[in-house]
Amino acid sequence: VLAYRAQIGSSPSPAGQLVLAELAAYGDLARHLRRLRRIMPTRRAFVVDQLRRRGLTIRGDDAGAHLVVPLPTVDAEHHAVAAARRRRVALD
């Protein structure tokens, strides 16, 4: 993993690492992960269902918290990103 990250120039977020360290230091990480494992399947299923109802193709729908939704044009991507921001949905 480290070699691959070095090759593509990717590294974990320093802020994310600090949050993770704090959760682990105070014993809250296990509780947080249990909570996520409990609530994420329902949230994920809802998002996947809504995207599929709109005829979108989904990749990685069995890969944790992330999904890839290829869009047909750059304009479609810009529209989707703007709509998500208006609804306070984070996209990467």
Automatic annotation (TrEMBL):
SUPFAM superfamilies on file: PLP-dependent transferases (SSF53383)
Keyword tRNA processing: no
Identification of the protein by name: PLP-dependent aminotransferase family protein
Gene Ontology MF: a single term: transaminase activity
Residue stretches in coiled coil: none
Alphabetically ordered keywords of this record: Aminotransferase, Transferase
